[in-house]
Amino acid sequence: MRPPTHLRDVSPDELFRRYAPYVARVAMTLLGRREDVEEAVQDVFLQAFPRLAQVRDFAAFGGWIATITVRVAHRRLRKRRLLGFVGLDDGDYRELEDPAAPPDQRALLAQLYRVLDRLPTDQRIAWTLRHVEGEALDQVALSCGCSLATAKRRIRAAQIALAAEVGHG
Predict the structure, then answer these.
(1) N or C: which end of the chain has fewer CB within 10 A?
(2) pTM, whole model, 2 decimals?
């Protein structure tokens, strides 16, 4: 059986089954908290399904859904920052921790996400897509809706801030 070439050949249920794990992984990486991921996945597909006609080629769907995921994560991070500002966000990153990892690595990961929480959202997302998700620079720019030069500036600014606070260059 050949893979589909057009979205009209794939049902929304099949798209969800194929891409929900990917969206959840990216959302978890960007948001850092499992409690945010399920709602983010639902938000992504609720936004995507009514606009499926915008995507002509099935091969482009992955990049398109990634862009929507980034936008949803961006809004959630901004909301979280506001809640933190008024003392309603606890900044708990224990779910990221691998119980098999040494305690110093678990502590460093939690510290990293706490520093990411203090970065401007645009920088956090660009850096995370590049260095945690391993996305190519052009894909980071596309997902963030900015130029390649802007994506590079955001990543560099985040890297400088992280190096200063976490102590690793």
Answers:
(1) N
(2) 0.80
User: DSSP for 51-72?
Assistant: GGGG--BGGGHHHHHHHHHHHH
Last residue of a domain, one of 74, 90, 106: 90
Q: What share of the chain is helix, strand, coil (3-state, %, to 5)?
A: 75, 0, 20
End of a domain among 90, 110, 141? Answer: 90
Residue 124 CA to residue 151 CA, distance in Å, equals 11
The tokens of 105 are what? 């690595």
Tell me which residue range forms the domain holding 105: 91-169
End-to-end CA distance of the chain: give it in Å, rounded.
48
Number of structural domains (the chain) is 2
Neighbours of 9 (CB within 10 A): 11
Task: Give the tens place of pLDDT for each residue, 41-99.
Answer: 999 999 999 998 888 777 888 889 999 999 999 999 988 887 666 665 666 665 555 66
Residue 101 φ/ψ, nearest 5 degrees: -75, 150
